[in-house]
Specification:
Organism: Alicyclobacillus mali
Pfam families: SpoIID
InterPro entries: SpoIID/LytB_N
Largest sheet: 3 strands, mixed
Helix content: 25-40%
Order of helices and strands: HEEHHEEEHEEEHHE
Strand order of the largest sheet: 2-1-5
Structural class: alpha/beta
Protein name: SpoIID/LytB domain-containing protein
């Protein structure tokens, strides 16, 4: 037994004798102990303007939110594998923020409807992108420890593979289309280019 462990046990014993209270360790939020949220709170800013004040907070189903965001962030006519990569990113990003809400001017919310987070316009009904969400709904993409991380992404350059983003843990949206359409990669391999060391798991 090393000396650090001895000290820890001694302090714990002293706490029991003297009546101290020791705070339990913070429970890590992983896919193993944290279910998908059933709802998400979206702060609505006027005209989807990232700097506009919040008008109200809308609560809606988590899957419905993801189905709305995907066609606003990915082009609906893109290759289905690009859309699936986007569906995973949109979902993981949103899931993370439901676990880290914030309060602004008295409004408590998980995300807003702008590019501060992800663009939300309440435009559900895009069948092609809805299908990408549905087909990947039970799949997550996480580090090996299962921690729920926000999969960051940026637009990238039209028609380009997004080489500068590879391995940076930021996915190029245009890059997903390039790797799906030109290189014929499945969405899991596309994700692995941008988020090295992460892995797909079923939940």
């Amino acid at each position: 037994m090393n000396w650090l462990r001895r000290i820890g046990l001694a302090l714990a014993g002293a706490a029991l004798v003297s009546g101290w209270s020791i705070a339990p360790p913070v429970r890590a939020q992983t896919i193993f102990n944290t279910p998908y949220p059933s709802v998400i709170r979206v702060a609505i800013r006027a005209y989807n303007n990232p700097t506009a004040p919040i008008l109200y907070v809308q609560t809606l189903g988590f899957e419905e939110y993801c189905e709305d965001v995907l066609p606003n962030e990915w082009i609906p006519s893109w290759n289905e594998e690009a859309l699936k990569a986007g569906a995973i990113a949109v979902k993981m990003f949103a899931w993370y923020w439901t676990l880290h809400p914030r309060t602004e001017n008295g409004w408590t919310f998980d995300v807003d409807n702008t590019t501060n987070y992800q663009t939300f316009k309440y435009l559900s009904g895009h069948y092609q992108t809805d299908l990408a969400i549905q087909q990947t709904w039970n799949m997550v993409y996480v580090p090996s420890d299962g921690f729920i991380k926000p999969l960051q992404y940026r637009q990238g350059s039209e028609g380009r593979p997004g080489y500068s983003y590879i391995g940076t843990y930021i996915m190029s949206q245009w890059g997903t289309e390039y790797w799906a359409k030109v290189a014929k990669l499945p969405f899991t391999q596309i994700l692995s280019l941008f988020y090295p060391g992460y892995q797909s798991r079923w939940v």
